[in-house]
Amino acid sequence: MSIVKSWHYLMHEKYCHWDWVSLEMDDHSRVKLQNTDNDYINASLVVIEEAQRYYILTQGPLPNTCCHFWLMIWQQQTKAVVMLNRIVEKESVKCAQYWPTKEEEVMTFSETGFRVRLVSEDIKSYYTVHLLQLENINSGESRMISHFHYTTWPDFGVPESPASFLNFLFKVRESGSLSPEHGPAVVHCSAGIGRSGTFSLVDTCLVLMEKKDPFSVDIKKVLLDMRKYRMGLIQTPDQLRFSYMAVIEGAKFIMGDSTIQKRWKELSKEDQAPSSEQSPPHPAKITTEKYNGNSIVLENKDQMEKINTDLSTKVQDITDGNIENSSVRKRLREDRRANTAQKLQQMKQKLNETERKRKRPRLTDT
């Protein structure tokens, strides 16, 4: 889809007063509404076949797009919505109140013919789970939708700790909403790329680690593959670093630590009363670098190598902590260390080659 055509759709829907309207949508991955005059909605279907994960990443619904948001959920047979932003952040409205509250238990979207009813609400210290009934007014059919709302994740920032994030992620997983037998889960923040990308990347990498050798999971490659479906996923170096940290922490569960989920819950303090202003401080700005024309916001090469080294080392430590058969396991450790060292050397060579190309003087026309 061309930028001009994309802009035409945005103007038609009066999106132009929102900061993220310039996000270009690709026809091959954008979700298309059915049985409407205009099939456009700012949403992308991200497909990771190897992990059997399917997400719809979208921007937070606007006042005039809530009806289309629910239409998409109905048509895609979605079972869960994962919301990673608050309605208002730093005195700026990030999205519309598109689901009913206890004060207004029913919302009707007559333009697309849907009614949403609040069935239950479970409020934790940093997230809330709503059970919603989505009714098609024309047919009378209704479905139950789980709404997982992370309430303490700042825009362009990261959660307070991997433990609290993973506790939330596994709460979503336990509902079965991410399973391939259901329609794709809808994940959104304000623009549907930063926080939404972080959530999807960590979940996907942990699934891949469960399915195959954890050391073979290349987080950077997974991210770049996901960006083929929705550009700009992961907006800041801190979000990328946090993704690595969360994968490292999540690997403990994959490697057989049966008590780790209980520790995540304890560390997250989810049963405490939520604070009135639920937002950790914003991290300091870090310079970004370009990758194939897209701002991938990676660290400089030394920092990036350190992140990958730490990942391999910490996952190795987790694995070693769960090994009892010394002779066989020792050989496995040696093989893995050699494999890790080889991968790090290859990565270093690629980084050096990229650096040389970047410093190579460019020829200009005279």
TrEMBL record:
<feature type="region of interest" description="Disordered">
    <location>
        <begin position="266"/>
        <end position="292"/>
    </location>
</feature>
<keyword id="KW-0597">Phosphoprotein</keyword>
<feature type="binding site">
    <location>
        <begin position="189"/>
        <end position="195"/>
    </location>
    <ligand>
        <name>substrate</name>
    </ligand>
</feature>
<feature type="compositionally biased region" description="Polar residues">
    <location>
        <begin position="339"/>
        <end position="349"/>
    </location>
</feature>
<dbReference type="GO" id="GO:0070373">
    <property type="term" value="P:negative regulation of ERK1 and ERK2 cascade"/>
</dbReference>
<protein>
    <recommendedName>
        <fullName>Tyrosine-protein phosphatase non-receptor type</fullName>
        <ecNumber>3.1.3.48</ecNumber>
    </recommendedName>
</protein>
<comment type="similarity">
    <text>Belongs to the protein-tyrosine phosphatase family. Non-receptor class 1 subfamily.</text>
</comment>
<dbReference type="GO" id="GO:0046426">
    <property type="term" value="P:negative regulation of receptor signaling pathway via JAK-STAT"/>
</dbReference>
<feature type="active site" description="Phosphocysteine intermediate">
    <location>
        <position position="189"/>
    </location>
</feature>
<feature type="compositionally biased region" description="Basic and acidic residues">
    <location>
        <begin position="350"/>
        <end position="366"/>
    </location>
</feature>
<keyword id="KW-0472">Membrane</keyword>
<dbReference type="InterPro" id="IPR051985">
    <property type="entry name" value="NR_tyrosine_phosphatase"/>
</dbReference>
<dbReference type="InterPro" id="IPR000242">
    <property type="entry name" value="PTP_cat"/>
</dbReference>
<feature type="region of interest" description="Disordered">
    <location>
        <begin position="321"/>
        <end position="366"/>
    </location>
</feature>
<keyword id="KW-0904">Protein phosphatase</keyword>
<feature type="binding site">
    <location>
        <position position="155"/>
    </location>
    <ligand>
        <name>substrate</name>
    </ligand>
</feature>
<dbReference type="GO" id="GO:0005634">
    <property type="term" value="C:nucleus"/>
</dbReference>
<dbReference type="GO" id="GO:0005783">
    <property type="term" value="C:endoplasmic reticulum"/>
</dbReference>
<dbReference type="GO" id="GO:0019901">
    <property type="term" value="F:protein kinase binding"/>
</dbReference>
<keyword id="KW-0378">Hydrolase</keyword>
<feature type="domain" description="Tyrosine-protein phosphatase">
    <location>
        <begin position="23"/>
        <end position="250"/>
    </location>
</feature>
<dbReference type="InterPro" id="IPR016130">
    <property type="entry name" value="Tyr_Pase_AS"/>
</dbReference>
<dbReference type="GO" id="GO:0004726">
    <property type="term" value="F:non-membrane spanning protein tyrosine phosphatase activity"/>
</dbReference>
<dbReference type="InterPro" id="IPR003595">
    <property type="entry name" value="Tyr_Pase_cat"/>
</dbReference>
<dbReference type="Pfam" id="PF00102">
    <property type="entry name" value="Y_phosphatase"/>
</dbReference>
<dbReference type="InterPro" id="IPR029021">
    <property type="entry name" value="Prot-tyrosine_phosphatase-like"/>
</dbReference>
<feature type="domain" description="Tyrosine specific protein phosphatases">
    <location>
        <begin position="163"/>
        <end position="241"/>
    </location>
</feature>
<keyword id="KW-0256">Endoplasmic reticulum</keyword>
<dbReference type="InterPro" id="IPR012265">
    <property type="entry name" value="Ptpn1/Ptpn2"/>
</dbReference>
<dbReference type="InterPro" id="IPR000387">
    <property type="entry name" value="Tyr_Pase_dom"/>
</dbReference>
<feature type="binding site">
    <location>
        <position position="235"/>
    </location>
    <ligand>
        <name>substrate</name>
    </ligand>
</feature>
